[in-house]
Amino acid sequence: MTASCVQIPNRAAIYVIGVDRFxxxxxxxxxxIFLLKSQPLIYSCLLTSxxxxxxxxxxxEDGDRLLIDCEGEARAEALLKSLKKFTLRSKVSLELQDxxxxxxxxxxxxxxxxxxxxxxxxxxxxxxxxPSLRKQGSDKILDQVQKSNMEAWDTHRIxxxxxxxxxxxxxxxxxxxxxxxxxxxxxxxxxxxxMGQELVSRMHHRGLIKKQxxxxxxxxxxxxxxxxxxxVDIGLALVKI
Length: 241
Known about the structure:
By secondary structure, the chain is α+β, with helices and mostly antiparallel strands. Helices cover 20% and strands 32% of the residues. The protein contains 6 helices and 13 strands.
């Protein structure tokens, strides 16, 4: 099967620079930032102080800085503002840039790009930093895969129950465990303290969640469920479990 590739729209890059960059993020995000020492890409979230969803994002190393691949425009600006509140005396600086192109390669085996940590069948994320990496020809792999569209990717990810940020998780309202994908792949239950940890840990160990995002057929959406993102005839809905 020929791999499909789609450019993910509305993404932004936040650069975390400075000697304290790892320790700074470690105390804030849900995932263990030091996993980057053994894998190239991690998926994580930033929560409210009482453990509700705020942002989800990917992080990878780019030389002597960390790059956060997050939702763009107003969401990126809000994430930057949230992170800056905690810099205090840390030796870090944060920069929001629009020099990142994000591609998802899926529907076939491929080792071109970073393995998407959210699901074994999610494929790979390919990053192009403009303009320097493009000048080096790092985007040639994109000429070797079949170009697709967001409808194809949305259909693929919805069937895998992969949420798409604030389209599926409501900021300041959703619990992380409403998404099984997030609970399993964006959270470390062993790394120690981070903002909002207490609620996440309690829900994990006590199994308190009552609703989760599931793939549903639009004409068979269970009564009382909340439909989030959808594509063609399927969607992600928050349903009772």
